Amino acid sequence: RGSASASRSVGAFFADLPLGGSRTLGTLGALGPDRKSRASGLAARHFNEDFLINNATRKEQAMYRIEVDRDLCSGFGSCVESAPEVFELDRSGIAALLVTESGDDAVLEAARSCPMAAIAVFDSESGEQVS
User: Fold this and answer.
1) For residues 101 and 125, is the Cβ–Cβ distance under 8 A?
2) pLDDT value of position 106
3) d(CA 114, CA 79)
């Protein structure tokens, strides 16, 4: 029920767009009023399908648990450059975590780029070390 109403509202949105404002809808001007609304409905359905596919992909994306060995860290900061939403340098210049889990693949690059190998990344589901 919710998706049908979402389709109608998205379809209405697409029907109200000025012609030529979108690659997908730019050809609607040649269609007539009946076919224009059908085309906007198809665009809405396509939009909803893409949304569902992208959300399913995000849910299947691996989650990582991150650990920093602060005794090994020398404060080079390559982790902060690779994944600034996950790492920061604290007042003493040592890497600290802003979050302990992330789905961002940048944490893998951060672990690989650490010259002191102070970052360990684990698959949250299996517990296996992945970097």
Assistant:
1) no
2) 97
3) 6
Q: Residue 20: name the closest of 30, 11, 12, 10 by CA.
A: 30
Rounded to whole angstroms, how far apart are CA atoms 113 and 40?
47
pLDDT at 97 over 80: yes
Q: What are the tokens at 104?
A: 């961002």
- pLDDT band of residue 61 (cuts 50, 70, 90) is confident
Using DSSP, state whether 110 is helix, strand or coil: helix
Q: Residue 18, exposed/middle/buried by CB under 10 A (0-12, 13-18, 19+)?
A: exposed
User: Residue 19: left (phi > 0), alpha (psi -120 to 50), or beta?
Assistant: beta
What span, in angstroms and rounded, lies between the C-alpha atoms of 83 and 109?
8
Look at residues 25, 68, 66, 30 and name the one whose alpha carbon lies nearest to residue 47: 25
